Target: CoA-acylating methylmalonate-semialdehyde dehydrogenase
Amino acid sequence: MRTIDHVLAAGTTGSGSSARTHKIWNPSTGEIQAEVALGDAALLDRAIAAAKQVQPGWAATNPQRRARVMFAYKQLIEENMQELAELLASEHGKVVDDAKGDVQRGLEVIEYACGIPQVMKGEYTQGAGPGIDVYSMRQPIGIGAGITPFNFPAMIPMWMFGMAIAAGNAFILKPSERDPSVPVRLAELFLEAGAPEGLLQVVHGDKELVDAILDHPDIAGVSFVGSSDIAHYVSKRGAEAGKRVQAMGGAKNHGIVMPDADLDMVVNDLAGAAFGSAGERCMALPVVVPVGEDTADRLREKLIPAINALRIGVSNDPDAHYGPVVTPEHKARIEGWIDTAEKEGAEVVIDGRGFSLQGHEKGFFVGPTLLDRVTTQMESYQEEIFGPVLQIVRAKDFEEAVRLPSEHQYGNGVAIFTRNGHAAREFAHRVNVGMVGINVPIPVPVSYHSFGGWKRSGFGDIDQYGTEGLRFWTKTKKVTQRWPDGGGDGSNAFVIPTMG
Ligand code: NAD
Model:
């Protein structure tokens, strides 16, 4: 059995790992294809010792030299795109084209990080007082750590380490133990790009290692993405240990469909956004909210044939719209939610339970599911399902359509489909959700903006990547200076200086 190992600075590889391992499935075949070594606190100590060796020199390297490593890395990722996407698809289950998107959206943050000399420039005020200048500079926080989910094993690690390392930090990545091979390759390619050993290390593990990261006094900042309960826990425990923490959680994104929307476009967008990647996206659109009964009926009529036409296949089937879900436990959980929805009174219009793919009967496939007449009291509405399940919640008017996502416990993304600019503008201003799409089903902001949800979709106050990411991975130092001209200016510090 192939064992996936940690990526540590030379001399530490493999050592300090606990004897525990975690099995890696091939979700398309239902077979175990590898195992991953699970690390412990001793392993983390070794990684941190190596990070401490290398980080000061890296921080002192001028930013254009650091950027050159990012440029070389960008090129290597592009050259290895196909290999990375196939590896990713084989462990995650998403189809290869979608896996390329996963790599690409991370790569875009690396591209942004290539501009680090520009974005890290500080501020300067000449003459803030008599003969006094004030300037501020951004300095790296030191050693950062990232704890990432299974569903974007390339993009989310790159969101974090791309920004953190370009800004002068060393980085310890603890990827999901369910699909760890791509994060390992990403770290290997980073070395190939010319990064010094120990700057980016990958440690595999589960809760034991996460706790060790959260408690470690030498880790200054932790970025987490995963489910909300764990995000909340990470946020509290990390803050308790005196670290800065950003922790993104789960989601239940709504797509509002106004009566004047282009329904053919909506159906096409919804099919991809609800069922792409088998619904295992935090920016998926698993809830559609048609406004008015007539809109709901027209939408449902168009949705049914579109959903029935979806092709489910193994992750390397080039014609498949989506592949299997990540583990057998997750398949059972999704089907359990469909059972719950049915018991709660939702109408199961298209039932994906018990789906089996011919020739791959052991794969973890779930058929596309459409539920209608879902209401806000239902647990299956309130909780995240994270599978290929689309729920229709009928709203009577625009006000109710604004209220539904605004009052939901999650506030990651939301979309509105309409031709009415005023309605769209009102909606974008009023809705209590962090990321809004206007006729855009998956509004993941580009790398030079920032990503982050609200409410239980995001704990901590700084978003991922862009200038927000830079803020997270750096601290500002403020310098107030004057230079004596030999005469003294007669000021004293018995009275708090006001600088006149
Ligand atoms: P998860 O919460 O199970 O795991 C995330 C990370 O936490 C993994 O690295 C895992 O090893 C670690 N972990 C698991 N259990 C832990 C515990 N008890 N204590 C400490 N650490 C623990 O999430 P997942 O299933 O890998 O990913 C799917 C979830 O992530 C969904 O809820 C999805 O919405 C969310 N997600 C959110 C965003 C976002 O930006 N808001 C992006 C992607 C995914």
Remarks:
- Residues 147-152, 174, 176-177, 206-207, 210, 225-227, 230, 248-251, 282, 384, 386, 412, 453, 457 surround nicotinamide-adenine-dinucleotide (CB under 6 Å).
- The chain has a mean pLDDT of 96.
